[in-house]
Each structure stands twice: as structure tokens, then as C-alpha cells.
Design brief:
Order of helices and strands: HHHHH
CATH topology: Four Helix Bundle (Hemerythrin (Met), subunit A)
Mean pLDDT: 86
Distance between the termini: 58 Å
Helix content: over 70%
Shape: rod-shaped
Largest sheet: none
Oligomer: single chain
Amino acid sequence: MRSYYPRSFFKLLLVGFTLVALPLVFALITSAVAVDRIASRSQTAVYEAVQATQSSRRLSELLTALERSARQIVILNDRSLLDAHKTVRAQFEQAVNQFGTLPFDAEQRVDLEAIVKTERQVFDALANPAVTPDTLQAQVGKYIELSNRAQAITAKSSELIDRGG
């Protein structure tokens, strides 16, 4: 087998530089692709964390609005205010569905499920005309627990942003 040797010193030098530079160019391209992937993942993670925080804050705002309208129904003893409560509740359900599509940890998922379950119980009590005022007052008092859970979800989402996704 015969090896190829360049006939001039310039060609020999060019072949040598090419053989030395090729692994470096390969490493540079590989590193650029890896950094691009990491940057893309990081950007996606931060975006999702911001979305989770915005959704959890919206959830908290809607829970406050629900509590306000529920307390008005109890204090004024006026069931006609239930329509306004239903409107806010529809927005709440929409926010819950939107929040449910986001990736979040198991602790947040448990809190969200507890919020939905407890809010449904409160709404059922508000919608039931046969419920006694004391029972209704106790059910509306559960909004404090709901607010605490919503704040825990918001804090966890903010913590995700602080950690960088």
C-alpha cells in the first residue's frame, strides 16, 4: 500500500493544519449545538414557570372574587346574587383548566385538586336553597383555606422562577 505524500512543503503544511483543526472544528460545532439546546430548554422552562405563576395569581384573584360574592350572598341573604357568582365561577373554572395544562409538581397538583373540590362544595351549599344560614356561613368560611392553598401554589411557582425553571 502506498501513502500519499504532498510534493510541496506548503501542501504538507496545509494537510497538517487540516488534520489538527478538524477535531477542533468538530468540537466547536458540537458545543454550539449543545449550548443552543440548553438555551432552548432553559427558555422553555422559564416560560412555563412564568405561565404557571401568572395562572396561579389569576386563580388567587378569582378565588377572592368568589369569596366576595359568596359573602355578599350570605350577608344580604339574597340568592339572586348567585348569577354573578356563577359568572365568576365560570372564569375560575377556565383558569383552573388553563393552569391544569401547565407542567407543575405534585404538591401544586394536590393543592389545585383540593381547591377545586372545596370550591365545588361551597358552591353546592350556595346553590342549595335548603341550606341553613349557619351551614352556609361555615361553607363560605372555607375560602380562607382556599386562599391559603392558592398562595402556596403561587409561592411554589415563584420559587420555580427563582430557581430558573
